[in-house]
Amino acid sequence: xxxxxxxxxxxxxxxxxxxxxxxxxxxxxxxxxxxxxxxxxxxxxxxxxxxxxxxxxxxxxxxxxxxxxxxxxxxxxxxxxxxxxxxxxxxxxxxxxxxxxxxxxxxxxxxxxxxxxxxxxxxxxxxxxxxxxxxxxxxxxxxxxxxxxxxx
Amino acid sequence: xxxxxxxxxxxxxxxxxxxxxxxxxxxxxxxxxxxxxxxxxxxxxxxxxxxxxxxxxxxxxxxxxxxxxxxxxxxxxxxxxxxxxxxxxxxxxxxxxxxxxxxxxxxxxxxxxxxxxxxxxxxxxxxxxxxxxxxxxxxxxxxxxxxxxxxx
Lengths: 152, 152
Prior knowledge:
Two copies of one chain form a homodimer. Chain A is 70% helix and 0% strand. By secondary structure, chain A is an all-alpha fold. Chain A binds chain B through residues 24, 27, 29, 34, 37-38, 40-42, 44-45, 48, 52, 70, 73-74, 77-78, 81, and chain B through 24, 27, 29, 34, 37-38, 40-42, 44-45, 48, 52, 70, 73-74, 77-78, 81.
């Protein structure tokens, strides 16, 4: 049996179970290494755009509302990507076994994170720097708590 | 002088010069390796979503209009990302020197590619599989021609 087909069915069940925030079911990848690369790649693109927003929030770079909205859009869409690539059989990279051993916690954390990044995108669309600062701070704290728990 | 600051200014000029399709100016990265990783990561996320659409277009996986629209959205947004990470001083990876030596050609190719991926996104939003097949074929041919010219 193809383990990715199994993970896809499991993913659908999980996606239905976790409620209002839409997270894709586990995607099928040609090989586990592709899944690892997919989550690492989407995390990296997200982090780079988040870092640009954080630099604006901290006054390290000039605030540009148009650019901020673009970064917010990319960060929000990328925040939806990694979770589909944590299916069974894709252990590796910096991922701790806890992701698979206590998967409900990980699902909850990923759902919370998407909400934080959506709030950040909404803030960037408002063009209000104070809102962006607050949303960057909230999302950044969420990054850290999830990394502390689930990343080596 | 920080080469990234130079590349950022050059990027603005190029972005203004190439017309109607918006391509970000060269972004500032902490180090050249981050720029290389950014373009590789965004290409990979794009390619994976494009491959899912191609599989639907070829009948290898069942057509699902909702999923197709999601993949089209990711592919289109990712198609805008790599180009900001080809600034001066970021040579490396599989990139051929031609990208920097004949940059106007590369800019034109990247602009054409974004248009193809935007057409693909529009096709996925239409929910019309025949339109998606045509757009996948056109975008795939564009991937290949650009890789043949600019990638080792």
